Amino acid sequence: MKDKFDYFIKTEKGKWEVIIGLEVHAQVTSKSKLFSSSSTKFGEKPNTQVSLVDSAFPGMLPVINKFCIEQAIKTGLGLNAKINLRSIFDRKNYFYADLPAGYQISQYKNPIVGEGSVTLDMPYGTKKVGIERLHLEQDAGKSIHDLSPDNTFVDLNRSGVALMEIVSKPDLRSPDEVNSYVKKLRTIMRYLGTCDGNMQEGSLRADVNVSVRKEGEKNFGTRCEIKNVNSIKFMEMAIESEAKRQVELLESGKKIVQETRLFDTKKNETRSMRSKEEAHDYRYFPDPDLLPLEIEQGYVDDLKNKLPELPDKKKERFINKFKLTPYEANVLISENNISEYFEEVIKTADIKLAKNWIIVELFAVLNDKNLDIKDSPVSSKNLANLINFISSGEISGKIAKKVFELMVQSGDEPSKIIKDKGLQQQSNPKELEKIIKNVLKKNLDEVTQYKAGKEKLYGFFVGEVMKASSGKANPKLVNDILKKELKK
Amino acid sequence: MNDLNDISLSEIIKLVKSKKISSVELANHFINNIKKGKKLNSFITTCFDQTIKDSKNFDKKQNFDGLLPGIPIAVKDLFCTKNIKTTAGSKILENFVPTYESTVTNNLWEEGAILLGKLNCDEFAMGSSNETSFFGNVINPLENNFVPGGSSGGSATALAASLTPATIGTDTGGSIRQPASFTGTVGLKPTYGLCSRWGIVAFASSLDQAGPMTKNVEDCALMLEAISGYDKKDSTSINRKKENYSKNLKRTIKGIKIGIPKEYRVDNMPKEIDQLWKNGIDILKKSGAKIIDISLPHTKYALPTYYIVAPAEASSNLARYDGIKYGYRSKKGNNLIEMYEHTRAEGFGDEVKRRVLIGTYVLSSGYYDAYYLKAQKVRKLIKGDFDNSFREVDAILTPSTPSSAFKIGEKANDPISMYLNDIFTVPVNLAGLPAISIPAGKDHKGHPLGLQLITKALDEQKILNIAFAMEKEIDFKQSLNRWWE
Fold first, then answer.
1. B38-48: b or e for each residue (b if 16 or more CB lie within 10 Å)?
2. Phi-psi category of B414—alpha, beta or left, where left has phi over 0 and alpha has psi -120 to 50?
């Protein structure tokens, strides 16, 4: 990890700074659509989640889903943003087969959420990224071009699903920062339960605005917008390739044309989709079917009071209260489920052991099995018990790892495994004395050498005792008895 | 028994309730009239088998609890009706059969009414003469070759010619009141939000409003009571208690303050219209109303404002007719864009295309501020004019239209002259207010002329009560010789 920001496109001719702004489209977590009561369930048969409103039948009218409004406000509060008590839904007009009404209901001039900010933890310190706005809009349906050579099929299941478009200020400066920003947004929304952030299902997508400028230059360069990038990795790749393309153009004396581009993930390059001249004229105007959305401050305050503890606050608490390092805190707050698991474990178990066991052992298992922590084979209670067996000296750390492995396989409680497999620590002094005496008897030469001053051999005796007890001997007792015996 | 053609809906209801006539007999009477009235071209779709079946059902159950027990009613073909073709007067919806029922028509059926058929109208309600319908002109029953007005032209003709005892239309800029005025009938545009827009093919969402068209004011109160009410499926619907307009209907003029806006004395207004207005004022005065001259200074901007706002919304509302999901699709075109182009070029008529183009233009970047945004500001000023006036007066009296019914084809190639027809009705839609047109006299050809009463929002009861009183004093007589039969 670098401790200083250092992302520039470096060429023989100079150093270029990359300026990035993101428009993230996050699907609102809600059972029904933004303006109809159809289900939003993913992966259903095509055109089975479609109402007359979603398919724009004559005379059908939109009715706002109040839950989606609540979700947008909560997200706005999570982004430390201004909530606009009056916002307006506009129509964005364009023709396309998967846009049944010929317009998308969106918010143009008066979004529900205004300016806010998100704080990123970068290796070189924290960085505040400005949020320009958040607005609500409908998703379109899906055109499927590859089912038939002659026909395009349309699936309207997504048509009308609520999206939040979160527009950042052009504050991001590297693919790493974009990575961190998107993950942070996702974490915040998952904490709030306002977007599941599932990129495979298209719940989180982004349009990426990229421009470059010479290091030290104050003005922004001409930007290009890369449309609809659907994974963080592709965002990083797209930015890198687009920034390089722009630098090459500028260094060869050419100009950047403001345009919309697409990222070709196979070729790892962006290509032009449409220029500014070809840009759609969306003819935005307030949707006359919907009254301006008016909400009361009291309602916003209410939602604010009911907000869960958000990642930044939780991180601060973890560092201060549990003495975690910022890195450990970041890992443990990255998902609400993880932090809950951690807090559950440390209700009864040692904090230091708990964080290590979770971050090292448990995460390895979860990654390996590709599991969410809420589906962990080792419950928080069982892990706490295991840690307590270690703390009390009933098993050694080494045995604990063996027990943990068996817990992962069986899901059983540690006490049962320890008992069944006879793994509890040998803590009977008489038994241990017997083992130790045996070991010393077998290694008389070493005993003589030790007594002659070769104290290094002490570890050798401990090792032999452990071996003889199959690792179960209580180290503290071994220590006590062994020292006593060696003095004889 | 009175001739069913000459009596009102309210009287028919009395006959039904006193079992002097059955629902089936009623249905057969109107079906017969409709069959004999084909020349008028007021129906796009009829569903006689269903009508008879429903009325037989009614006669079997004998449930007289509803406001409209067993009454057959035809509705404008802009209301979506479940399993019955709904075209909006357009080729693009020529074969469209909704799987759902509009809230307003559903309210009618809940009150015991029975669907008689779907009435012709201007394509997507865009027109003032019913000449833009894909299904052809509607003829005014007063005289062959005359338009019934529009866009609810089929509704007005069918009502005046007694092909339906009452009906409902929609009014975006005068589409109920102007045809009512042209056919000697009563038409009310309610306060925006009083009747649900759910299930009505949209023209201009911020202006569209359904309303009753009837032979007299009493019927109008009854029909309004039946169709109005809060609907949570329409976000612009007003959430308030339903009113009993018919029960509370009484003739009240005495002491009421009536405003006469000077800006409605437009240039070149026919003398007959001016005289009609004067007569109306005299009647009100004689009945004890106080006449107050008022000013609505932004009136002259209403028409241009309307012709920015309405097309802007329409251009977006009509984008859904793209040949993809339902409705007409052209067989021409080699890709998606070409398919759109052919479908919409073939599916829409000229007036619709004209308004979609205007609407697209005024919303375009670079023009939005100069047109749409400015129009919205003017709209506020127009509403402000009315708000100011209603601090002083209870209602405003104006002519409904600047002329009586004109000949078919007379204005068809002159959109501006056609648009000018709505000059007195449009400001009301922009302000979201209720207004009624009642028959108040005839011109030299014997063609009816209407007067318009406007009140502040949600004052429908007051409008109806004043109209009810004026109606009695005016004593308008419809004279139709049923030449078309």
1. eebbbbbbbbb
2. beta
| Domain-wise residue ranges, chain A | 9-303, 309-420, 429-487
Tell me the average pLDDT across A353-371. Answer: 94
Q: Is A63 on the interface with B (CB under 8 A)?
A: yes
pLDDT of A262 higher than 90: yes
Specify the CATH number for the domain of residue B37.
3.90.1300.10
Torsion of CA B47, B48, B54, B56, to 10 degrees: -170
Which percentage of chain A shows pLDDT scores above 90?
Answer: 74
Residues forming beta bridges with residue B214, ordered by sequence position: B186
Per-residue pLDDT band at A2 (split at 50, 70, 90): low
Chain A hits for B360, CB-CB cut-off 8 Å, are: 283
Q: Is residue B236 a contact partner of residue B114, using CB atoms and an 8 Å limit? A: no
What mean pLDDT value characterizes chain A?
93
Is B324–A97 a contact, with Cβ atoms under 8 angstroms apart?
yes
Q: Identify any residues that bridge with B127 across adjacent strands, giving them in sequence order.
A: none
Query: For chain B, how far is it from start to end, CA to CA, in angstroms?
Result: 22
Of B211, B261, B226, residue with least CA distance to B434: B211
Q: Does B436 reside within a domain? A: no
pLDDT (tens digit per residue) in B271-280: 999 999 999 9
Find chain B residues with C-beta within 8 A of A288's C-beta.
Answer: 204-206, 236, 313
pLDDT score recorded for residue A486: 85
Which tokens hold the place of A149?
């050579």
Domain A429-487 grouped into CATH 1.10.10.410: yes
The answer to whether residues B211 and B195 touch, using CB atoms and an 8 Å cutoff, is yes
Report pLDDT digits (tens) over B79-138.
999 999 999 999 999 999 999 999 999 999 999 999 999 999 999 999 999 999 999 999
Q: How far apart are the first and last CA of chain A?
A: 54
For residue B380, give every residue at least 6 positions away whose Cβ sits within 8 Å of its Cβ, in sequence order, or none. Answer: none
* Cβ pair A58:B316 closer than 8 A: no
Asked whether the predicted pLDDT for residue B304 surpasses 50, the reply is yes
- Dig out the tokens for B434 from the structure: 């209720």
- Closest CB to A281 among B88, B98, B365: B365
Q: E strands of B221-358, at which residues? A: 257-261, 290-294
> Does B1 have pLDDT greater than 60?
no
Quick one: pLDDT at residue B425?
98
Residue B93 placed within a domain: yes
Are the C-beta atoms of B76 and B169 separated by less than 8 Å?
Answer: yes
**10 Å Cβ neighbour count for B17?**
12
Residues contacting A436, CB < 8 A, separation 6+: A461, A465, A478, A481, A482, A485
CB-nearest partner of B234 from A58, A61, A152: A61
Contact B88, B175 (CB under 8 A): no
